[in-house]
Amino acid sequence: MPGIGVGRAYGSCGELLQGVTEQDRHFLVTLPIRRGTVAVFEPGGHGISVVPEGKSKAQRLAGAMVARSRVLRGGQLTLHSELPEGKGLASSTADLVATARAVADAEGRTVPVGELEADLRAIEPSDGVMYQGAVAYFHREVLLLARLGPLPALTIVTGDEGGSVDTVEFNRGEPSFTPADKREFDRLLTELGTAITHGDVAAIGAVATRSAALSTISRARPHLDATIQAARAIGAAGVVVAHSGTTTGILLADNDLRLHEQVLAARQICAEFACSIAVHHSWRPGAQRVPAVDHPHLPAIPRTESTPR
């Protein structure tokens, strides 16, 4: 008998790195945060209803999963999200991952990552938030590139420049990166992987800042240079952006004794360009866990349940 299913997924505060490899494959590196989406699926009736209305992608995914199910015929999907839409915080992918987990949970199973990625691939480009920790991800292919591991404890003070960006439309474009840019992206990915492995906040921030600067090739960010200079002046680790969103963030190390003063200063920096300001914290194992997914080529991870807050 099917029961009420619950699924959870965290968001990503923009991307630590996003670009194109020398092999012309588009990739990004996630910055998982403790805010995300909780989905609840209540089986019953026929067809799929969704709350709030307008979550058509999640409704489509739930419908596809129910159509394949041997025990479900329909139901109501309710999404509770802490992530604003169109800002580059992986809100859409978090909704979809949480939805898939909720529907699978209603069936009494854990959704395999291959199934999840196949379903998402049919809907839109996706971030890699179905994996725990930071990952390098081929977002247009909806395919894992590499698991990079847990991030150090970070605080990210973000400013929203206003408006929104349609991720699907953004990813239809081809950024005018040169061969030299693509070689640099490959090098930056290697450097970032090493930095995450060693918990090197300064090196992580340096890669994120360079990626933010390179992002202006695809999308103008008039405030970025001044933000980078001001962030350096307060001793921040770096600047991170949502490459297909409207968010710019200042990266701060939680173990910095000046953290409280830095957060206040970062808020003032963001106030120079932003219509709204938020403070996020990096997701870390033990500090915040989300349900794992099964992958035939990756080590098994214990399945856990907790709200991404």
Write the layout of secondary structure elements.
Elements: E1 5-20, E2 26-43, E3 47-51, H1 56-68, E4 74-81, H2 91-107, H3 113-121, E5 134-138, E6 143-149, E7 154-160, H4 167-170, H5 179-198, H6 201-214, H7 224-233, E8 238-241, E9 247-253, H8 259-271, E10 276-281
Helix pairs in contact: 1-2, 5-6
Explain how this protein is built.
There is one protein chain. The protein has 309 residues and is α+β, with helices and mostly antiparallel strands. It folds into two domains: 5-146, Ribosomal Protein S5, domain 2; 148-281, GHMP kinase, C-terminal domain (Alpha-Beta Plaits), CATH 3.30.70.890. It is built from eight helices and ten strands. It has helices at 56-68, 91-107, 113-121, 167-170, 179-198, 201-214, 224-233, 259-271; strands spanning 5-20, 26-43, 47-51, 74-81, 134-138, 143-149, 154-160, 238-241, 247-253, 276-281. Strands 1, 2, 3, 4, 5 and 6 form a six-stranded mixed sheet that branches. A four-stranded antiparallel sheet has the order 8-9-7-10. The chain is globular.
